[in-house]
Design brief:
It holds the Pfam family DHO_dh. It comes from Flavobacterium agri. The protein is of the alpha/beta class. 39% of the residues lie in helices and 16% in strands. The protein has a single domain, classed as Aldolase class I (TIM Barrel, Alpha-Beta Barrel). Helix 6 runs parallel beside helix 7 and helix 9 runs parallel beside helix 10. The longest helix has 17 residues. The two termini are 29 Å apart.
């Protein structure tokens, strides 16, 4: 029903307007008694064989919603009814910020892709914390970043503020230094500043009674040498794992007219590269740490390829927009079929 009826209607709207309209629709329908149960009956697959224990957390299934969809933790309870095993909120920054000027979100229909240059638009970490206090048992990842006006030399302070504010309200953290839409942010992926940033968060983490897993989200555009640096950094800082990958600045092989828009590309064109990064990290590290695979998952087979490459869990974003919530069910059923 989604691809035949709802998607054509949504795709008539501006991409960002469609996003907010969908949020409003899901919220209103979920408020009607019985509708949450209907969503769960349509899309959730409940089976013990789907459960995964990764970096000390138990996931009811390995399919999550990637950061960027529910930036401000406004709809995570409702979105969990579509069968996700976990939901990552953010990217959150210490202070609210509007992000980049509109228009900043573009569909590339011929490529089943999206270009975004949102720029960490969010209402600030404290506002999100208030909404997270209403969590009804959803496993939550907290994706954190820095404000645009914060210079890189002071970036660690922003990440530390978000870490402390979110600590009691999320199950794991994701350090986002790989978005292409905040000026100079990707410079923090260099070995020295990244090691310092992660160590600063680990120092805060180590004094907690129950430390939380910290993951690093990396760009797909890193060279092999840079990926080897990432392996070293994970080992040296003892963080819990890696999310591979964020959006790409590459435009190779695209067909759509608006492919020249600035921003990060997600969707099908990213599938091959993100899987290559997962496989490289897994093989070169000797499977030393868990990897969450994200990028170009538009079918159950796409997800299985990432799991085969070395991912422990997978996340959806653009594929969820193009394929609808049935994709979550399809992936979980395909995983179950393999386990028989």
């Amino acid at each position: 029903m989604y691809k035949q009826l709802l998607r054509p209607l949504l795709f008539k709207l501006d991409a960002e307007e469609a996003h907010y309209f969908t949020f409003s629709m899901v919220r209103k329908l979920s408020a009607i008694p019985g509708f949450s149960n209907i969503f769960r009956s349509l899309y959730a697959v409940n089976d013990k064989k789907l459960e995964r224990e990764v970096f000390g957390l138990r996931f009811k299934n390995p399919v999550g919603l990637a950061a960027g969809f529910d930036k401000d933790a406004k709809l995570y309870n409702e979105l969990s009814n579509f069968g996700f095993g976990f939901i990552e909120i953010g990217t959150l920054t210490p202070k609210p910020q509007d992000g980049n000027p509109k228009k900043r979100l573009f569909r590339l229909r011929e490529d089943s892709a999206i270009i975004n240059r949102m720029g960490f638009n969010n209402g600030g970490v404290e506002a999100a914390v208030e909404r997270l206090k209403k969590n009804k048992g959803v496993l939550i990842g907290g994706n954190i970043g820095k404000n645009k006006i914060t210079p890189n030399e002071e970036a660690a302070k922003d990440y530390e503020i978000c870490f402390e504010a979110l600590f009691d309200h999320v199950d794991y953290f994701v350090v986002n230094v790989s978005s292409p839409n905040t000026p100079n942010l990707r410079e923090l992926q260099d070995k020295e500043p990244l090691t310092a940033l992660l160590n600063s968060l680990q120092n805060l983490n180590s004094v907690k009674a129950n430390p939380k897993p910290i993951l690093l989200k990396i760009a797909p555009d890193l060279t092999e040498d840079q990926l080897l640096d990432i392996i070293d950094i994970v080992r040296d800082t003892k963080i819990a794992g890696v999310i591979a990958t964020n959006t790409t600045i590459s435009r190779e092989g695209l067909q759509s007219e608006n492919q020249t828009e600035m921003g990060g590309l997600s969707g099908k064109p990213l599938a091959k590269r993100s899987t290559e990064v997962i496989r490289f990290l897994s093989e070169k590290s000797g499977k030393a740490f868990p990897i969450i695979g994200v990028g170009g998952i538009h079918s159950a087979q796409d997800a299985l390829e990432k799991l085969d490459a070395g991912a422990s869990l997978v996340q959806l974003y653009t594929g969820f927009i193009y394929e609808g919530p049935a994709l979550v069910k399809d992936i979980n059923k395909a995983i179950l079929k393999r386990s028989k």
